[in-house]
Amino acid sequence: MMPTLIETLTEDDLIQQEFEALLDDYSKTSHRQKIEIITKAFNFAKAAHKGIKRRSGEPYIMHPLAVARIVVREIGLGSTSICSALLHDVVEDTDYTVEDIDNLFGPKIAQIVDGLTKISGGVFAEKASQQAENFRKLLITMSDDIRVILIKIADRLHNMRTLGSMPLAKQYKIAGETQYIYAPLAHRLGLFRIKTELENLSFKFEHPDTYREIEDKLAGDEDARNQFYKEFSAPIDKKLTALGYQFSLRERIKSVYSIWNKMSTRNIPFEEVYDILAERIVFKPREGMNEKEQCWMLYSAITAIYKPHPERIRDWVSTPKANGYEALHVTVMGPGGRWVEVQIRSERMNDIAEKGLAAHWKYKSGIADESELDKWLKTIKELLEHPEPNAIDFMDTFKLNLFASEIFVFTPKGEIKTIAQGATALDFAYSVHSDLGNHCIGAKVNHKLVPLSYKLNSGDQIEILTSKKQAPQPEWLEYVTTAKAKTKLKALFKKEEKGFIFEGQKLIEAALFAIGLKLDNENIVRILNYYSITQRNELYLQAGKNLLNLDDIGKVIFKTKAQNVFVKYLKMPFGGSSDGSKQAATVSIDSKVDRKKSIKLTEENAGKTYILAECCHPIPGDDVLGYVDDSEKIIVHKRQCPVAAKLKSSYGERIVSVDWATHKVLSFIEVLEIKGIDKKGVLIQILKVISEGYGVNINKMNIETNAGIFVGRFYIYVHDTEDINNLCKNINKIKEINSVQRIQE
C-alpha cells in the first residue's frame, strides 16, 4: 500500500506547510504586508517550543500557528496580532521573559503577550481551575488593548477544536467554561461565527448523543430543505436582479446548539423548530444613497412577494446593537405556509457581522466618536474598580453586562440613553451617577409616579426623584438588574457585613470553647454541614445576625466526645421511604477521590462516596459530571445544570468524570408535564399507561383545564431516563395527547 503524502512529510515539512498557509491567509487581507516580522516571530516561537508535543502528539508550534491563522482569517487582524498569537505561549511555557519579547519585537507585541501570559497556567495546565480569577486579570489587560481578548478567544477556539484528545473530566470543565464565559464574550464583541462554533463545540462534548441525534435529523431533512430554499429564493433573486441591485443570496442554517436550546427552552420536538432555515441578502450599496434607505427599499421589494409577520421585524439599522451589529430582519410567509426569516445587510454590515466590530477597532486613533463597544468597555473598567472578592460572584456580575440587550429611554430634556433590557428606575438612577442612585426615592416615567422597582420600556421618558435622607436598603438588590447598580450596592453592603462576620466568628469560637474545642477546619466543616451552609463567611454572617441557634453546637453537633476525625454527617441522595423523605447516614471518608479516573455511581456507594445535587436532581441515564467537595465527596450534577456551569468555570480541577452503574433498584421522583385535549376518559388512559404498563407509582398529580385543553403535572417514581423515555413514548400514543415532557421544577 502506497504511503499518503501526509505520511511522507516530516514534522518540519508539516510545520513549514502550516506557516506558508498562514502567510497565504495574510496576503489576502488589506493589511500592510509585514512578512519579515511575522517570519521572525514564527522562527523564534518554533525554536522556543522545539521538542515539545501537544497531548494529541503533534508538535506544540502547530497550536500557535493555528491560533495565528484564526486571528488573521476569521477575526481579520494584522501583523501585530499575528506575531502576538505566534508568541502567546512562549513566556508561559519557556525560559523567555516579556523583556526578551520587548527587546526583539517591540513594546506593543510585548504588552499583548504579557496580557495573555497573565492568564497563568494556560487552558490545559494544572492551574486551569482558577479561570474566573484569571479572567478578571484578562479584563484588566483588555482595557489597555482589545487585541488581548481577541487572541485569547482565538486560542480558546483552537483548543475547543482539538478538545477530543483531552480526558473526559477536562472536556466537561473546558466545554462548560467556554459556554459560560467565552461564547457570550465572543457574541458581545460581535464575533458571531466564532460564538456559534464555540457554543456548538461545547454542546458536542457535553451532550455527544443529543448532538449526533440532531445532526442526523438535519442531514435527513437536507434534501427537502434545499428544495424549499430554491423555491423560496427564486422570486427574490428575480425581483432584485430586475431592480438592478448587486447582491448575493445566502442560506443560513440554525446551529445544532441553537436548535437544541430552542427545543429545551420551549419544550418542543425537533419537528416544531420552524426557523432552522433563514435567508441572508448581502447587497452592494448604490452610490449617492445611504445604506439604511436601501435596506428598507429591499424590504419593500421582498414584502411585495411574501407577506411579512407584523410582530417579527427587527430594525438594527436605525439603532445598531451594542456590539456593532447592523441589519434589518423580517420574517415572511413562504411557500406552503412556512415562516422564513430574511436578513438584509450591506457588504459593510456583513463584514462587521462576520468578523465583529472588534476587527475594525480604532487603536489610539484619537477619534472622539464613542462606539457602543467603547461604552461597554468603560462599564467593565468600573466593575474592575469594585471587584467581587468571590470569583464566581464576579463572573455572575460580569455576565449581567455580557448578556444585556439594550432598550432606549429619554431623559427629561429629551436626550436618548441606552440601558439594559429589564432595567428598573433604580438601575437608571445608578447608570447616571452613584449619588443619584443612593438617594433615589422614586421616579416619574412618562410624567407618572412609579416605584424604584418599575421596569423600564423602550421609549420611556424618565425623571429620578431624590431625597438627602434616603439611604440604600438591602432589598434594593432585588430591585436592580444591571451589573453597575448591583456592584455599587454590594460594595456599600459589604462594609456592613464585615462587622456581622467578625461578631459571628467570635460567637462560634466562644460556643466551641465552651465545650473544649478549637475553631479549626475539621470542626468548622461539621458545623457547615449541619447548617447546610457552603461558605465559612456565610456561616459567620448568619451567626452574627442571630439567624442560627448556636446552642446546637454543644447540644447536637458535638454531642459525642469520642469522634473519629474522618467521620462526616452526609445526606443520602435517594428517597428511602414511601413518602420520598430523605434519610441521614453517617459514613466514613478516609480516602481521596482519584480525579483522573471515571467514577462508577453504584447503589452501594450512594451517600458514601457521592450524593446527587439538589439543584438539578440527576437520575441514572442523564448526562452527568462530578464535583469533588472539601470533604472528598462527589456531588453529581447534570452537565447542563447552571450550578455545574459555574463550578466548571471556577473550580475545574475538582471536576471528575462519572458513569452510572446503577440497576433498577433505587427510585427517584420526576415530573412529567402532559398537555392535550380535555376529553372524557383521557385521564384514565394516562393513569393506565403509567401504573399498569410500567408499574410506576404516582406520588401526586395536578390537572388544570381551560377551554377544552388540559395541562397535567404527574409526580412519578422512576429508576432511570429509560423509564421516562418509554413512558413519554407510550403516553404520546394516546390520540388526545399533544405533548409529554420531563420538566425540572
What does the secondary structure layout of this molecule look like, with pairings?
Blueprint: H1 5-8, H2 11-27, H3 35-48, H4 62-73, H5 79-87, H6 90-93, H7 98-105, H8 107-117, H9 131-142, H10 147-161, H11 168-188, H12 192-206, H13 208-220, H14 222-242, E1 246-253, H15 256-266, E2 277-284, H16 291-303, E3 308-315, E4 328-334, E5 338-346, H17 347-355, H18 372-385, H19 391-403, E6 406-410, E7 416-420, H20 425-432, H21 434-438, E8 440-445, E9 448-450, E10 462-466, H22 476-479, H23 483-514, H24 521-531, H25 536-544, H26 551-557, E11 567-575, E12 582-588, E13 599-601, E14 610-612, E15 624-628, E16 634-638, H27 642-650, E17 655-656, E18 658-660, E19 668-677, H28 682-693, E20 698-706, E21 709-718, H29 721-731, E22 737-743
Parallel strand pairs: 2-5, 13-18, 14-16
Antiparallel strand pairs: 1-2, 3-4, 4-5, 6-7, 8-9, 8-10, 11-12, 15-16, 15-17, 19-21, 19-22, 20-21
Helix pairs in contact: 2-4, 3-5, 4-5, 4-10, 5-8, 7-8, 8-10, 10-11, 10-12, 11-12, 11-19, 11-27, 12-13, 13-15, 19-23, 23-25
